[in-house]
Write a structure and sequence with these properties.
Blueprint lengths: L21 H7 L2 H9 L17 E5 L5 E4 L3 E2 L7 E2 L7 E6 L6 E6 L5 E6 L9 E4 L4 E5 L10
Antiparallel strand pairs: 1-2, 1-9, 3-4, 4-8, 5-6, 6-7, 7-8
């Protein structure tokens, strides 16, 4: 079993699933982190310090530490949530979310299943996508710092 973080952008390996019970995740995470990641809650807009993060680095899943986004794909969307035009290949899964009147595309960490946010088709070039992320569902690792080991 792999126990180290994949290098940002390394999509050449299969990412094994991390299976934990709800109780295990509750013990590891703060209540609001758990609510967003495993109950698909949404944090308030403009509440995350990651909205203003401008340094180069990697954004990882706050639950299992899998790298999800590069700072090179981050942009200011004006929505109040950290937004990216492209995720790291193979690190996110999607499903259709019917919680509002119109269906949306929800996305989550492919390793632990932690909810990250929703993807929309109103982003900038080159993809035209806006991956709108809950800041509390991410941790930022500045360039030059070692990525943490993947959580077991």
């Amino acid at each position: 079993m792999m126990n180290h973080a994949l290098a940002a952008g390394d999509s050449s390996r299969v990412i094994p699933k991390l299976e934990k019970s709800k109780d295990e995740w509750r013990r590891l995470l703060q209540p609001k982190e758990y609510a967003v990641l495993f109950e698909e809650d949404t944090e308030y807009p403009h509440s995350s310090p990651l909205n203003h993060e401008k340094r180069a680095g990697t954004y990882i899943c706050a639950a299992c530490y899998l790298p999800l986004f590069s700072s090179e794909a981050k942009f200011e969307s004006g929505t109040g949530w950290p937004s990216f035009f492209r995720p790291l290949t193979g690190h996110l899964g999607t499903k259709t979310d019917y919680k509002l009147l119109a269906p949306r595309t929800e996305y989550h960490c492919i390793r632990c299943g932690g909810h990250q946010g929703h993807v929309f088709d109103d982003g900038p070039p080159p993809t035209g996508q806006r991956w709108c992320n809950n800041g509390i569902a991410l941790k930022f690792i500045p360039q030059g710092e070692q990525l943490p080991h993947l959580r077991n």
